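Inputs:
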Amino acid sequence: MADFAIMGFGTVGSGVAEVLRMNADSIEKKLGEPLKLKYILDVRDLSATPYAGVAVKDFSVLENDPDLDVVVEAIGGARVALDFTRRALMAGKHVVTSNKELVASHGRELLSLAREKNVNYLFEASVGGGIPVLRPLFQCLAGNRIEEVTGILNGTTNYILTRMVRGGIPFDEALKEAQARGYAEQNPAADVEGLDAGRKICILSDLAWGKEVLPERISTRGISGLDLQDVAIASQAGYQVKLLGRALRLPGGKQAAYVAPHLVPEACPLAGVDGVFNAIMIRGNAVGDVMFYGRGAGDLPTASAVMGDVMDALQHREKRRELGWSESAELTELDDLVMPWYLRGGRETPADCRVLSGGAALTGPMTAQEAKALAEKLGAAALLPVLQ
Amino acid sequence: MADFAIMGFGTVGSGVAEVLRMNADSIEKKLGEPLKLKYILDVRDLSATPYAGVAVKDFSVLENDPDLDVVVEAIGGARVALDFTRRALMAGKHVVTSNKELVASHGRELLSLAREKNVNYLFEASVGGGIPVLRPLFQCLAGNRIEEVTGILNGTTNYILTRMVRGGIPFDEALKEAQARGYAEQNPAADVEGLDAGRKICILSDLAWGKEVLPERISTRGISGLDLQDVAIASQAGYQVKLLGRALRLPGGKQAAYVAPHLVPEACPLAGVDGVFNAIMIRGNAVGDVMFYGRGAGDLPTASAVMGDVMDALQHREKRRELGWSESAELTELDDLVMPWYLRGGRETPADCRVLSGGAALTGPMTAQEAKALAEKLGAAALLPVLQ
């Protein structure tokens, strides 16, 4: 018998309980022992729910139960969640989470603590919801030197962009639609300004190269300033506008990480990823490009990843998974990155460009600094990077 | 220091040696110890290669070396490879392979032997080349009940189909082109008749439900009989013809597995997978649909997966990975599967069908048996299943 607890009974927490209810038999068969939900910790009153019998309000009950093996942290944020995660690890519990904010900002400390206490701290659900991507990255692709990770990491913004491209409706209207459908929160800033995607690309970068990249160190540009006409011109020219998180290994060993809307050529599999779906492309020096695709959010998909981690932690009880990152990464200035650029509304078409409709053009590869200077010189109204 | 050996120095074997040469530093860092290529076993003379110093011709050298940890089996086939794999496992070595024929036909016995000897038998490279798919299936998605696995599992046939669709050239010509480019073998039967895809869908099915499905038990239909006009009509109607391997869990707990060319609607991500790329879609009852995409063959991509398994085996030296399948699966008759069908060339258009160009039509969902009866009654020249 393995015992676990859920902290925070919101979307993810209740999804985890539901997945156990749905699949208890197959989970027991795979684990070789029954998995028991022993506690649900939440400030709310759960006495009217089927979980009344396991509801607790005091964290120390979990902390002091020597038979409790795994704690699922589904509280969110980086305050209470940080405190309880620290204490759970200190108490020798394995901890599993979907909390990207906590992992991106405090993962280094928490993984180091987990190593000290010889327990697992696992967080597959923090990136890409239910899509298996972190474990494939650090395990299946371990024989590669990772060159690049590029992903559509936020379903809300991808839904809005898909509506702008396919429905021809402007950003504000698409956002309202996303809110009405429950895909965007009432305060959508973390999604539409690229902060959520930024946390996820940091976690991917941490794992790809074993060096810490904190969210506050990377440039994030969201989609709120995106003009519908650029989306339409790009689409006519064979590109889809996508909000991408990118992490790159550059010649000389430096790294870069950022979030920005890009023009993605239609031949790239990322271009076809629509609606609330996420996809992450990983380039390794042996495997080439591999892509992982699926639902990046939602109660059951996210709970699927959490449950996979709970089972993995239990299968690695004696010998924890080696996982972690150490010193800070040496990041290059974004201004030095070389790629082609989309420009619109300049006074004249720059030389050596592919001319598009609506006074827009695609430049050849140049640094972000050069592209900005060119856009300024021409008085361009729009400047977007192009994925190669 | 961890020691490993490569048996068979062809495409995959030499790729594994090359990946170690390229990435020795990062592999050592991740493993926490250097990885040493101690032996290469091959019948050929390697004295003129950089690997002369580690070349051996006698398997018993590997078998009797108590310091050898892992053996990579890259011999292929199911004769010598079976014998050496059995003996390596018996000698307490971990074994890693890309040999789908061996895993599909003898995996049950070999995994049972590995369990007995408390060693790992891993085969991520046997399906999808470098694409991480087996480990995500049995580990990351372990919390799900798997409902379906559907994949483009053979790059050769996908290249030929892509040339037929996009280039408008007939099968024979596309095959010759694939052979000229080295994508198809001189005897292409195993690829074009669907046997290779069949072995892979058996392995996926074995892992998804833990019950053995042997290749000889499933129906495999390849692409050699495919008419260019059906590919063209389908394309015009918004479908791509793809050779799919499918494994399904049916109501009541029975299973089905088969390989056949299908019409895939363009909205399905599998439709956009072109050329030599592979993609595998997995449906779980919690996660929904997830897809894995990348190069399904080639020396370095396949070696990437092998190397990931070698490292995983070393990280699970004391406590082997629980992996295996037991009794035979209860398979349903394919004739009972219900789906829509593509028909061409009948004497009349059947009722309740979507009429396509060229005398073709799409039926509503019906069993394969009903579709065959209908095709026969109408004297149809072509009958293909449609992915829903």
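Residues 11-31 of chain A form the longest helix (21 residues). Flag for discussion at group meeting.
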